């Protein structure tokens, strides 16, 4: 299955090259910036332990006819008309040491997760200042610098795939933009096993053997708010996840079946071109 996503990634290269070759004929822009960001994130889906991050926040906003890199990630636009849009996205998440998590103590560490794949967006309502769409991202997941069941370090591990169909609302004003999503998380057995499975060798009195299954992982709500004035940008993000009706709600590693995560950042921007 993940070979399919790699083929899709390769298919994006001609579009990116086309955008680069035709730079003189199309309008592109580049804005760089730096600031500070604060975020609170759970160790993994269903964890009752969080890490708080207070970090320098680099900012890049590159836009061309078919390629953009910004706070939403890397996006290669393959098809775009008034009704349907096909994009290609890359997202990720931080690593977690099992020594720092009570529920996973003695289990392999979780590495960095990189998720990559296409997204189809169907415009349901289009108005001057807002639109509503049905977005269907499908992503292959890869774990980088994690450990396998034998505690051997692995540079890359196949972590399955996931779907996040959702209804998306986005509105823009002169200085303010806002979006809101509601949808579900559906993931393969390999993906959910990374977070919810407990192999027999890691079972204890408080952490019984459990084999994760594919299917519904949970429901999600999320919102993003941006305020831009002159060369300054304030952005915030908030996401609510509910795992209580997921296929693996009985996993001993799910310590909290609904939770919030989010962050806020302040950025000073510099227009390069």
TL;DR?
The chain has helices at residues 2-21, 189-196; strands at residues 29-42, 50-63, 67-70, 73-80, 84-93, 112-126, 130-147, 153-163, 166-172, 176-187, 215-229, 232-242, 258-271. With 273 residues, it is mainly β.
Main structural class: mainly beta
Please report the first level of CATH classification, the CATH class. Answer: Mainly Beta
Under the CATH scheme, the architecture is Beta Barrel
Distance between the amino and carboxyl termini: 40 Å
Helix content percent band? 10-25%
Please indicate the percent range of residues in DSSP E strands (runs of 2 or more). Answer: over 45%
Helix count equals: 2
Query: Residue ranges: pLDDT <50 for 5 or more in a row?
Result: 1-25
Question: Would you list the SSEs in sequence order as H and E?
Answer: HEEEEEEEEEEHEEE
From the spread of the alpha carbons, the general shape counts as globular
Report the biggest beta sheet as strand number plus sense, adding barrel if it closes: 13 strands, antiparallel
Mean pLDDT over all positions: 87
- Let me know the number of strands: 13
Please give the radius of gyration in angstroms: 20 Å
CATH topology description: Outer membrane phospholipase (ompla), Chain C
The domain count comes to: 1
């Amino acid at each position: 299955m993940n070979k399919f996503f790699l083929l899709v990634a390769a298919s994006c290269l001609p579009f990116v090259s086309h955008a680069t070759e035709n730079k003189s004929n199309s309008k592109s822009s580049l804005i760089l910036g730096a600031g500070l960001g604060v975020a609170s994130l759970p160790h993994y889906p269903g964890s009752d332990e969080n890490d708080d991050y207070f970090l320098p926040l680099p900012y890049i906003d590159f836009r061309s006819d078919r390629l953009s890199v910004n706070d939403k990630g890397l996006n290669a636009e393959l098809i775009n008309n008034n009704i349907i849009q096909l994009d290609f996205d890359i997202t990720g998440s931080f690593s977690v040491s099992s020594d720092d998590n009570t529920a996973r103590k003695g289990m392999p560490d979780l590495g960095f997760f990189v998720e990559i794949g296409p997204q189809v967006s169907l415009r349901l309502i289009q108005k001057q200042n807002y639109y509503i769409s049905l977005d269907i991202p499908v992503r292959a997941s890869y774990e980088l610098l994690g450990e396998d069941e034998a505690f051997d370090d692995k540079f890359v591990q196949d972590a399955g795939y996931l779907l996040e169909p959702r209804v998306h609302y986005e509105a823009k004003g002169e200085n303010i933009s806002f979006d809101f999503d509601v949808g579900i998380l559906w993931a393969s057995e390999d993906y959910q096993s990374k977070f919810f499975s407990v192999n027999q060798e890691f079972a204890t009195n408080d952490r019984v053997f459990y084999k994760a299954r594919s299917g519904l992982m949970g429901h999600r709500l999320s919102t993003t708010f941006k305020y831009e004035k002159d060369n300054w940008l304030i952005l915030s993000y908030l996401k609510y996840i509910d795992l209580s009706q997921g296929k693996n709600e009985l996993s001993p590693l799910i310590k909290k079946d609904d939770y919030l995560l989010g962050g806020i950042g302040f950025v000073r921007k510099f227009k390069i071109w």
